[in-house]
């Protein structure tokens, strides 16, 4: 009998195993297409940031004491000539280059003009940004392994980048097991609709993987399982997610198929409810197989428990961090198992949702994530609990 591994240990085990498979090669990705990717190299400033002193207000860039004679105008995008004499100033727009020789910048609303001379008082805090104030040329701003977000893209653009060196997206394949599944139309007459083929690829893409549509249903025979797994390997997939067949029933062929292909288990069953018959195995070529239970909610528990840390490791990112929530109602424990309880936010506090059976998706569709109730414990209203967020 297989002894389930603790939930926290399982997450660490798959993350560590995946780190050995981080791709060495990188690819140049245009900024507009880089969202969701992972930096393959540190983001280093190509110039000082800002590259030149800039005014943060509309006003006057002046040299020496007031009053100042107007000597010109600097708009955003202009190259400013230096101020060489005390008692002179230029009108300047927000974002304009502050001329060399400037000693103060005065806001337009803090100034007055009489007979062509400007008077005014600068505010206590300077109203212009010094060259290199944010970063010096060559300074590392973000480390390799940082997820690319719109904020990262904006920062890279401000530094002068047109493309980013990104790690290749981990390639994933999805195999849906189960002869009883329908791929179209309503369920009935002993057959259920496949809810995982359309949804699991979407989850994997959100987690940073490249994945085609799911293949299936794969026939409930050992030969068909072995052939489908081998086909996924031949397609170049680094991660193969399977749904169903993780137990040892009469048509559960995943374990025998893994044995025939020479796989070794990284994790085989996890002490978590729902969804404990989940697994991650590694094939001789280094590819990972994530065996997800066939019941839909259990599938998604397995995804957040094992697949998200695995993909983070493959992408060279940090292990996924858990957030915290304050419980707004009691949440039961599950004995020696970690309980992942679906919750929604009501008034800023996490409340359990209904319709959370292993085969149900209604509760999941309205949830923000899973509250983590540790083994041997239970959650009480007012307690702070860890949260596994849904993407």
Automatic annotation (TrEMBL):
<dbReference type="GO" id="GO:0046872">
    <property type="term" value="F:metal ion binding"/>
</dbReference>
<dbReference type="InterPro" id="IPR036425">
    <property type="entry name" value="MoaB/Mog-like_dom_sf"/>
</dbReference>
<dbReference type="GO" id="GO:0005829">
    <property type="term" value="C:cytosol"/>
</dbReference>
<dbReference type="InterPro" id="IPR038987">
    <property type="entry name" value="MoeA-like"/>
</dbReference>
<comment type="pathway">
    <text>Cofactor biosynthesis; molybdopterin biosynthesis.</text>
</comment>
<keyword id="KW-0501">Molybdenum cofactor biosynthesis</keyword>
<comment type="function">
    <text>Catalyzes the insertion of molybdate into adenylated molybdopterin with the concomitant release of AMP.</text>
</comment>
<dbReference type="InterPro" id="IPR001453">
    <property type="entry name" value="MoaB/Mog_dom"/>
</dbReference>
<dbReference type="GO" id="GO:0061599">
    <property type="term" value="F:molybdopterin molybdotransferase activity"/>
</dbReference>
<keyword id="KW-0479">Metal-binding</keyword>
<keyword id="KW-0500">Molybdenum</keyword>
<comment type="similarity">
    <text>Belongs to the MoeA family.</text>
</comment>
<keyword id="KW-0460">Magnesium</keyword>
<dbReference type="Pfam" id="PF03453">
    <property type="entry name" value="MoeA_N"/>
</dbReference>
<dbReference type="InterPro" id="IPR005110">
    <property type="entry name" value="MoeA_linker/N"/>
</dbReference>
<protein>
    <recommendedName>
        <fullName>Molybdopterin molybdenumtransferase</fullName>
        <ecNumber>2.10.1.1</ecNumber>
    </recommendedName>
</protein>
<keyword id="KW-0808">Transferase</keyword>
<dbReference type="Pfam" id="PF00994">
    <property type="entry name" value="MoCF_biosynth"/>
</dbReference>
<dbReference type="GO" id="GO:0006777">
    <property type="term" value="P:Mo-molybdopterin cofactor biosynthetic process"/>
</dbReference>
<feature type="domain" description="MoaB/Mog">
    <location>
        <begin position="173"/>
        <end position="313"/>
    </location>
</feature>
<dbReference type="InterPro" id="IPR005111">
    <property type="entry name" value="MoeA_C_domain_IV"/>
</dbReference>
<dbReference type="InterPro" id="IPR036688">
    <property type="entry name" value="MoeA_C_domain_IV_sf"/>
</dbReference>
<dbReference type="InterPro" id="IPR036135">
    <property type="entry name" value="MoeA_linker/N_sf"/>
</dbReference>
<dbReference type="Pfam" id="PF03454">
    <property type="entry name" value="MoeA_C"/>
</dbReference>
């Amino acid at each position: 009998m297989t002894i389930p591994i603790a939930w926290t240990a399982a997450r660490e085990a798959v993350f560590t195993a995946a780190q050995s498979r981080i791709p060495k090669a990188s690819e140049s990705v245009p900024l507009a297409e880089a969202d969701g990717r992972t930096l393959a190299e540190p983001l280093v400033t190509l110039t000082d940031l800002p590259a030149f002193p800039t005014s943060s207000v509309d006003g006057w860039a002046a040299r020496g004491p007031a009053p100042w004679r107007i000597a010109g105008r600097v708009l955003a995008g202009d190259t400013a000539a230096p101020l060489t004499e005390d008692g002179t100033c230029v009108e300047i727009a927000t974002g304009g280059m502050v001329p060399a020789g400037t000693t103060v910048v005065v806001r337009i609303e803090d100034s007055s003009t009489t007979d062509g001379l400007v008077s005014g008082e600068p505010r206590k805090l300077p109203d212009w940004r010094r060259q290199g104030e944010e970063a010096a040329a060559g300074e590392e701003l973000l480390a390799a392994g940082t997820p690319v977000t719109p904020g990262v893209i904006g920062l890279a653009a401000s530094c002068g980048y047109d493309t980013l060196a990104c790690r290749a997206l981990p390639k994933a394949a999805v195999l849906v097991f189960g002869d009883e599944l329908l791929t179209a139309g309503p369920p009935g007459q002993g057959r259920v609709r496949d809810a995982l083929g359309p949804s699991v690829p979407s989850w994997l893409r959100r987690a940073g993987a490249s994945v085609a549509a799911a293949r299936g249903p794969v026939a409930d025979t050992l030969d068909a399982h072995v052939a489908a797994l081998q086909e996924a390997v031949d397609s170049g997939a680094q991660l193969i997610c399977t749904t169903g067949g993780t137990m040892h029933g009469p048509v559960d062929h995943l374990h025998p198929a893994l044995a025939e292909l020479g796989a070794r288990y990284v994790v085989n069953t996890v002490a978590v409810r729902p969804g404990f018959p989940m697994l991650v195995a590694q094939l001789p070529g280094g590819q990972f197989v994530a065996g997800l239970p066939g019941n839909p909610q259990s599938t998604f528990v397995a995804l957040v428990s094992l697949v998200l840390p695995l993909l983070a490791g493959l992408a060279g990112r940090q292990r996924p961090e858990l957030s915290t929530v304050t419980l707004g109602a009691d949440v039961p424990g599950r004995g020696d198992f970690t309980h992942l309880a679906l919750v929604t936010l009501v008034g800023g506090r996490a409340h359990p949702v209904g319709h959370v059976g292993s085969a149900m998706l209604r509760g999941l569709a309205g949830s923000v994530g899973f509250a983590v109730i540790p083994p041997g414990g239970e959650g009480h209203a007012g307690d702070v609990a860890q949260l596994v967020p849904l993407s």
